[in-house]
Amino acid sequence: MRYAPLFFLLMLPFVAAAQTPVNTAVSDTLSRFLEPAAVTAVRATERAPFAAETLDAAEIADRNTGQDLPYVLRYTPSVVVTSDAGAGVGYTGLRIRGTDATRINVTLNGIPVNDSESQAVFWVNMPDLASGTDDIQVQRGVGTSTLGAGAFGATISLNTLGMSEEAGGSMMVGGGSFQTFRTNLQWSSGRSKSGWAAEGRVSAVNSDGWVDRASSALSSFQLALHRAWDGGGMTYTILSGNERTYQSWWGVPEVVLGGDRAEMEAWGLANGYSVQQIEEMKTYGRRFNYYNYEDEVDNYGQDHQQLHLEQQWRDWRFSVTGHFTHGEGYFEQFKAGDDLADYNLPDVVLGGDTVSSTDLVRRRWLENDFAGGVIGAERRWDRAALTLGGAWNGYEGLHFGQLTWARYASAAPDPNYWYYESLGVKTDHNAFARFVQRSKNGRLQAQGELQYRGVRYTANGTDNDQQVIDVPRDSATFDFLNPKLGLDYRLNDEERFFFSVAVAHKEPGRNDFVDAPAGAANRAERLTDFEFGWRRNTDTYAWGLTAYHMAYKDQLIPTGALNDVGAALRQNVPKSSRTGVEMEFGWQVSDAVEIGAQATLAGSRIETFTEIIYDYLDYTTVEIDHQNTQIAFSPRVLWGGQLLWHAVRPADATQPKLDLEWATQHVGEQYMDNTGKAALLPAYTVSQLRASLHLPTSKNGEVVDRTRLDVWVENALNAEYSANGYSYSYFYGPDVYTIENFYYPQAGRHINLALTYTF
User: Fold this and answer.
1) What is the dihedral angle through the alpha carbons of 456, 458, 464, 467, rounded to the nearest 10 degrees?
2) Cβ(565)–Cβ(522) under 8 Å?
3) How far apart are CA 209 and CA 421, in angstroms?
4) For the whole model, what pTM was predicted?
5) What value does the mean pLDDT of the chain take?
6) Which residues make Cβ contacts (< 8 Å) with residue 164, sequence separation at least 6?
7) For the chain, which has fewer Cβ within 10 Å, the N-terminal or C-terminal residue?
8) For residue 683, how many other CB atoms are within 10 A of its CB?
């Protein structure tokens, strides 16, 4: 796969020579291609029979505070965002309807972004992505069929392929609390008479973070080359990101949030914390960072390349996409007194003494390649449409560890001694067909989809704990059929109803195979998603209601079980479910005032599972059966509201404008494990104040924001809260039961600002 980029470079001259340039005036036919087929194939339409929200470029700009992209989505229904460093820069995440990142399917211009092995999305690898995104669609539930991994809770579709007809660009400088500084430069050549256009972006974001030492140094660039011809078009795009982030994954012990200095010291001594760590707990409190080694960093870079081709032929629209992603990087750790045997090294003899452990520095590396191709075809009639698509994606991931320094390790063959190595290989091939039919009067629309997806995975080598990895192909082979049916009924021009039922499957992740005890293979998960919606949209107000029931079979959850080297295991549970109601409301009260609101009332349930708790006094296990428990990180109540005031809005559109917005989100309490016991993440309410000053001007007969100043006051009411956490429990003898809770506290009141100049 390492030679895959050559494919794109070799194809470009042929693309340039093969087609007739477009006329200077964009034809009606060509206008369809401003949203590429690779994007539309995975997008919900206006009458899709499930819940979907689309943010356009203007809405993204209002929400783009310089934090990672999840924070742009935080005011969409059923979304909860998290930040390890406490201020939204660095490692961030999100959940939708309680489902985590491994079950949220993310596509970039129709191409899968989720890591093939862990199935997660690491937004920190794509810094300032929001600044280069034209629109974002969030589909809740199973959603539409995609050409990548199956969605198991939600889909996020990002589109960066929009092109500007006119030459121009913008420059932004910004910053804020915690020594945060960001800048980007964007430019566009405009479309030439021969149909060519180019655009690009370079960005940098640096922050010390709110948590002590949780700094981030992020950079990225984005380039796109477009060519349009009569009936079709081509786009070649590169998106590259690099991040160096100080680790803050450990979280803060519960004693720091509620205990005094003496309790912190006693807890730290009991849990093996160093003198320095205990003192820092007392000093920094909620900002405490467990890590204190100078280079305890995550360092990773990733490059995405995509080539999109599409052509209209008679009544058919065809598209072909090739893509290649390469990533490599490591996280570095200092380890005190680790056993040499854990690194496959012999003891060291110093004089008459034998040294079996040593202080050392290690790096755990990942180098991965992801490549594939997508084909699609679409045919439309007056009252019907047919979409066909297929894709093949291949992944190779090399995992290895280096020792870069050791106090005593004379037997290491070189300064960069590899102490483990394994290779994971995964292929994903899929195809789908979608047919849409409307009634004669246009009121009733029926939609049916069928997706086939085949997954093949194998892994071999040695893990970081010196355990042999052997995942043969026959134990990790899956074939899925995912049908979807939906109805949309338009009562009138303002009101409609929809209903759908959809099936999705999801294979286990790498750790589910690698960490599982020998002979214990996890089964694939299955989801049946029922959606019912009611929407009304008028000139002055709009509201929507969605009821859903997501029934899982064999969902993988942590149960407390560990393998023989202490790694946490996920295990299948027979039945579980999520049920809820989502409400949305928007009202344009006047020309100057707009109101928005969202709310989710939800319940989740695991019918039965067995919790595994370890007794560390005699190293036995205790099994506790649970029935009808709540799924972890699934709040019952979630609501938010926005009040937008166009404080200054003159009659002349070229005069200055001022917008003020107040936004609030409330997240109900959540359990951090699946037992529904004392591992509780308390409810919180957090607010934001935004002020946007626009200094417009006229350009080529159109009004544009020449200069724009945005100021965001985050956590405006200075709430003390934690957005995420984790928990584990253990026995030490039959009468000593302990639950350890760790939290990720978020920053108090802080400010982000940005000054943008458009040229």
Assistant:
1) 130
2) no
3) 33
4) 0.92
5) 90
6) 188, 190, 191, 197, 199
7) C
8) 15
In angstroms, the CA 290 to CA 273 distance is 9
288: its two tokens: 């405490």
How far apart are alpha carbons 233 and 31 in whole angstroms? 10
Q: What is the DSSP letter of 129?
A: G
Concatenate the DSSP letters of all residues of 279-298 into one string.
HHHHHHGGG--S---TT-EE
* E strand segments, 71-209: 79-83, 92-96, 104-108, 111-112, 135-140, 154-159, 168-176, 180-188, 196-207
83 within 8 A of 248, measured Cβ to Cβ: no
Q: What average pLDDT does range 648-667 have in this prediction?
A: 93
Tell me the C-alpha distance between 274 and 548, whole Å.
Answer: 49
Number of residues written out for the chain: 759
Per DSSP, helices labelled H in 578-645 are none
Distance of CA 558 to the CA centre of its chain: 21
CB 107 within 8 A of CB 155: yes
Could you give the count of Cα atoms lying within 13 Å of 192 in the half-sphere of its Cβ?
11
Model confidence band, residue 149 (pLDDT cutoffs 50, 70, 90): low
| Tens of pLDDT, residues 577-628 | 999 999 999 999 999 999 999 999 999 999 999 999 999 888 889 999 999 9
Contact 447, 436 (CB under 8 A): yes
At residue 693, what is the residue type? L
**Termini Cα distance of the chain:** 40
Give CA separation, 387 vs 155, 450, 460, in Å: 19, 11, 39
**Residue 150: what pLDDT?**
63
Q: What is the pLDDT of residues 664-705, one digit of tens each?
A: 999 999 999 999 877 899 999 999 999 999 998 887 777 788
Q: Is 270 exposed, middle or buried (0-12, 13-18, 19+ CB in 10 A)?
A: exposed
Tokens of 602: 């939800």
**3-state class of 71 per DSSP?**
helix
Residue 35 has pLDDT above 80, yes or no: no
- Report the C-alpha gap between 300 and 242 in whole angstroms: 6
- Determine the 3-state secondary structure of 758 from DSSP: strand
- The sign of the torsion formed by the CA atoms of 378, 155, 306, 473 equals negative
- The beta strand positions in 589-720, using DSSP E, are 593-615, 620-629, 637-648, 657-667, 670-671, 680-681, 684-699, 702-714
Write phi, then psi, for 461 (nearest 5 degrees): 130, -145
Place of tokens 């479910």: 577
Angle, nearest 10°, between helix axes 275-284 and 261-270? 150
| pLDDT tens digits for range 219-266 | 999 999 999 999 999 999 999 999 999 999 999 999 999 889 999 999
Q: What is the pLDDT of residues 66-120, one digit of tens each?
A: 899 999 999 999 999 999 999 999 899 999 999 998 999 999 999 999 999 999 9
Beta strands in 381-494 (DSSP E): 384-406, 417-438, 444-462, 468-471, 477-490
Per-residue buried b or exposed e for 711-724, using 16+ beta carbons within 10 Å of the residue's own CB: bbbbbbeeeebbbb
For tokens 């892994």, name the residue. Answer: 459
Structural contact between residues 108 and 130, judged by C-beta atoms closer than 8 angstroms:
no
Indicate the class that CATH gives domain 4-251+289-758.
Answer: mainly beta
Angle, alpha carbons 194-199-202 (nearest 5°): 165
pLDDT band at 634, cuts 50/70/90? very high
Closest CA to 248 of 212, 224, 282, 276: 212
